[in-house]
Amino acid sequence: MGLDTQELFFHKNFLYYNPLVLITIMVWLCGVNLWVFSQTGVDYASIFYLGPDHLSHKEIWKIVLYLSLLLAMEFLRHSPLYMF
């Protein structure tokens, strides 16, 4: 891969995937926050005025796991276009 192709590859991947990676990390950390709240016994549902149908940390992690897998598969699908 030439230098121009490498720069194009990293620039395009940064532009395409940076927002999605940031959103994925944000949702992972939201699940971590809910897990810490539940482990320490903080009643976060009443603090944040959540209804009885809010998602638990396990459900959030399951959703974001699928999002992370989808993002990784999409990145790997897009990457070979600039390898040669």
Automatic annotation (TrEMBL):
Protein name per its UniProtKB record: EXS domain-containing protein
Domain EXS span(s) in chain numbering: 14-75
Keyword Transmembrane in annotation: yes
Alphabetic keyword roster: Membrane, Transmembrane, Transmembrane helix
Location in or out of the cell: Membrane
Highest taxon of source: Eukaryota
Residue intervals passing through the bilayer: 20-40
